[in-house]
What we know:
The protein has helices at 24-29, 70-78, 113-125, 145-151, 170-180, 193-204, 239-242, 253-260, 264-277, 279-282, 284-292; strands at residues 4-11, 16-22, 35-39, 47-50, 53-55, 60-66, 84-85, 87-92, 103-109, 129-136, 154-159, 166-167, 186-190, 209-213, 229-232, 235-238, 245-247. The chain is of the alpha/beta class. It folds into three domains: 4-92, Elongation Factor Tu (Ef-tu), domain 3, CATH 2.40.30; 96-213, Rossmann fold, CATH 3.40.50; 217-266, no CATH class. The strands form four sheets. A seven-stranded mixed sheet has the order 12-11-10-9-13-14-17, with helices on both faces. The protein has a five-stranded antiparallel sheet with strand order 5-6-2-1-7. It starts with a strand and ends in a 13-residue tail after the last helix.
Amino acid sequence: MSQFEIVAREDFSEVTYLLEVRHPLMAKAAKPGQFVIVMLNEHGERIPLTIADYDRTRGTITLVIQAVGKTTRQMQQECRVGTHLHGMVGPMGIPSPISHAKKVLCVGGGLGVAPVFPQARGFKEAGAYVIGVLGFRNKDLVFWEDKFRAQCDELILCTNDGSAGMKGLITDGIAVALQGHPDIDEVVAIGPPVMMKACADATRARKIKTMVSVNPIMVDGTGMCGGCRVKVGDKVKFACVDGPDFDGHLVDFDDLMSRLRRYSTVEKEAEQRWSDHCRMAQAPAVKAQLEALELPDPSEEALGG
């Protein structure tokens, strides 16, 4: 049996959930910005997931996942405390460099809130003044606010409908932070590509160093398949071995979003096949609930994040 036991789970919303997986060696080696590739079962696909947190004492890795396709929906249904993942490889990718910046703005939109947390904590531990800007669609989707308040000197919470924090998009929160702190040395932004592009545009004129974490289509995670190509300036990089962090002012976000949409039809067909053969989905009440649930497009901007 696989040793990748799920020791804790938390559901933040209908589509967002947390899994804490026991893996002492990986927890010991993990650093901010890295990711893992997991397989739910022997015949499952390999999916990359950013490490949202790690606990070296407990020997666990924390993953925050959004059910946006066949595998992530299946994991949402089957991954319970006491079950096991078939495979988990990592930590992969180049760790995010924790610079000697004195004042840092850490921006997380939607699901990007989770992977930006280790970086906020890393900068705080390095002695920086950390400002957090978190964006969600509404208060029901907000998670980890207390964790960020414990690590950030200031926290700006944005929701599209104003039900929590300030009303507006995450770029509105960035504008507030830049207005109040003209001496920000570095910005770290993680979220949907459109959001990260907007963040880079917001800091470009001031020439503030802006790092983004990209999550393109990925298969092997070792640089062999070439599926995770990202245009950065006049060069082509592989997110799995050259990233996932890149200079946001150089990333070609339009190309990135185009690549993310390339297999959308195939992904929807795979999700439909799984739904049609899933016994739970065949239950009238559950099937109706699934059909009514509008899943977000990971390549698009989530309002408020």
